[in-house]
Amino acid sequence: MVAEKYLYIKTFGCQMNVHDSEQIVALLKASGYESTDDFRKADLIIVNTCSIREKAAQKVYSQLGKFRELKRSKPGLIIGMGGCLAQQWRSKIFGRAPFLDLVFGTHNIHQLPDLIRTIETTGSRLEETTFHESVKSVGIVALPQNGAVSAYVTIMQGCNNFCSFCVVPYLRGPEVSRPSQDVIDEVKALADRGIREVTLLGQNVNSYGKTVGTDFAALLHEVGKIGGIERIRYTTSHPKDLSFDLMRCYADIDKLCEHIHLPVQSGSDLILKRMNRGYTKAQYLEKVESLRNICPDISITSDMIVGFPGETERDFQETIDLMEKIRFNNLFSFRYSEREGTAAVKFADKVDECIKRERLQALQSLQEKHTLERNRALEGRIEDVLVEGVSKKMPDEMVGRTRSNKIVNFRGKKGLIGKTVSVLITEAYLHSLRGELHQGRG
Ligand code: SAH
Ligand code: SF4
Ligand code: F3S
What we know:
This protein is an alpha/beta fold. Helices cover 34% and strands 22% of the residues.
């Protein structure tokens, strides 16, 4: 059957946005929109935006320009913009992008079917960016788009931390947790549909539960009991909220994968303080040590910002020192980007862009060394790999992930998708591992 209407969705930003887009696709499918990869075929285009750094916002604007061209030749086309940049700009965006039909915020996804219907029938231009106090369910289980075996589950929205560089609390609202029963029901429904791995999502998942009278460790224990689910992951966690109870979960819950993304942002106490992060370098190091004592194989990844206002060479060396001490498995690093409305805008001692570039480069080449070193340590080991699909480059190869979240390519058959197999790691690279199916399993 040929669909009558097509939706093209373009997603920028973090996993939160990726999952929001999955929900949008599921919701609008129920309104008669089939999703397409070809934007020229679309009757409805949705751009799900990010505003975390200036570069992210610029990417959105250039993308919108492309769609404006299409609308010239296809006047009936509806173009909507959602996500964090939409939440930030609200109706002001219409001045910059008059061809937009809809601007919707980060709390308004569940309203999309109604909003689109109104535009279809009246042709009017709409803005809906109101915050809601509870996490509004879209009422549909949104599966990942490519038939994958791994799915995201939102457990909370918003953030109360107000790190001085960050726009998220302003754009996603205050921290609100979903009731744990809702989360559990959703994970069960995903397991029934063949999902084997869930990633619990929120800006600060380890502070989960405050608004619903529970905590994150308790939720993990509950999710750990759900049949059919083999692996549990979560992201992102804040170092200040990493409790001993949560660390213990790595020893007590088999399904919890040996990986934590624990953004540190800087190794300098002075900068951490100015960032309003709520921990010191020593406290971070201590938590990492405890984690490694409880779970020696744990993979630790992090985020780092260079060139925050006031960052001297000495502060930067503290960051390098922290990296040397921890030797992260992987690190996402960024040049500080000033964001309107955040506290750091008012800070003096802005760091020159050239220095930021130099520092970022130094940091990234050190990290490459550490990543490779950590990956090489897996050579010769036999790892459990959850097979996710066929390799894009080699049709006779399968791709999956270790519990520590490393990508593994190996020769194997399609029938393995969704299964966990033992793979002998034969070679390690910067971004992936290569292996062979281990005899006796798979
Ligand atoms: N909630 C997560 C992070 C969300 S944003 C946490 O608390 O860690 C993802 C990453 O973007 C952050 O960890 C930070 O490293 C980076 N980031 C956020 N704001 C930034 C800014 N203004 N400039 C540069 N990087 C930024
Ligand atoms: Fe932003 Fe900090 Fe909240 Fe993370 S914890 S989303 S960095 S304010
Ligand atoms: Fe970007 Fe919003 Fe995520 S600003 S990083 S899409 S929470």
